[in-house]
Amino acid sequence: MEDEIKERNRKRAEIWALKSFRDRSGILLEEESLEKLEAKSSKHIRFTVSDTAQAARILERSFHENQFTIQDDHNMRLHNLDISVGKIVTAFVENGLEVSQAATSEESLEDYFKRVTGGEGIA
Fold first, then answer.
1. Distance of CA 91 to the CA centre of its chain
2. Strand 68-70 relative to strand 44-49: parallel, antiparallel, unpaired?
3. Under a CB-based contact definition with an 8 Å cutoff, are residues 73 and 52 in contact?
4. Theoretical Cys-Cys bridge with 36: which of 18, 20, 32, 104, CB 3.0 to 4.6 Å?
5. Residue 111, CB-side half-sphere exposure with 13 Å CA sphere
6. CA nearest 95: which of 60, 68, 45?
7. What does the pLDDT look like over 83-119, one tens digit per residue?
8. CA–CA separation, 113 vs 34, rounded Å?
């Protein structure tokens, strides 16, 4: 029970700090909902491919997967880590995509806060 309370309080502190997202001079850098912040900072598989629209169709058709975000024409994140990266890359290549990067990434909310603000963290 005590661990749950500590974790809840830690998350509240992170949420409060993240909602502020101001640099050292007080300029607001970013303001997002917690859901969007967690999506930006959570575990995911990062892909760099020749065509993210085609990659999305392959994920939906071959893996029945829709837990991904397309960042631009060549970069996307898959938020479901239960699917083998190798199987996904194979499916991409078999369907004519070039895959230049496939990597599992994990960034905590605090890491994201540090990266965006250029700061030392919240504690």
1. 22
2. unpaired
3. yes
4. 32
5. 9
6. 60
7. 999 999 999 999 999 999 999 887 666 666 666 666 6
8. 12
For the chain, the average pLDDT equals 77
Residue with tokens 């995509």, as numbered in its chain: 97
Look up tokens 């959570």; give the residue.
42
pTM listed for this prediction: 0.59
Which among 102, 65, 70 is positioned nearest to 86, based on CA atoms? 102
Q: Where are the beta strands (DSSP E) in the chain?
A: 44-49, 68-70, 75-78, 99-105
**Cβ proximity of 4 and 100 under 8 Å:** no
Own/partner pairs for 16-22, CB < 8 Å, 24+ apart?
17/113, 17/122, 18/109, 18/112, 18/113, 21/113, 21/116, 21/117, 22/117
Q: What are phi and psi of 49, to 5 degrees?
A: -135, 170
